[in-house]
Recover the amino acids of this structure.
């Protein structure tokens, strides 16, 4: 809600005073929750971080499966 208010024109200083949240925290929320444009559409910073983690996990799984296939192919 605070990020939406920021995007509608309310200053971070005003939001901080009204809701009792530090300006640093509000800027952090804005960074995390503001959609970013990309060639594939829009996503938030948080979604981008989650996608990178998932990509890393899948790459690691893929390497493990390749090694397992090599072991079984020798037998």
């Amino acid at each position: 809600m605070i990020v939406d208010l920021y995007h509608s024109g309310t200053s971070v200083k005003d939001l901080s005073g009204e809701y009792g949240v530090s300006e640093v925290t509000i800027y952090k929320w804005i960074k995390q929750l503001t959609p970013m444009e990309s060639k594939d559409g829009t996503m938030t910073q948080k979604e981008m971080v989650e996608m990178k983690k998932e990509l890393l996990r899948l790459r690691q799984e893929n390497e493990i499966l390749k090694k397992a296939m090599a072991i079984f192919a020798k037998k």
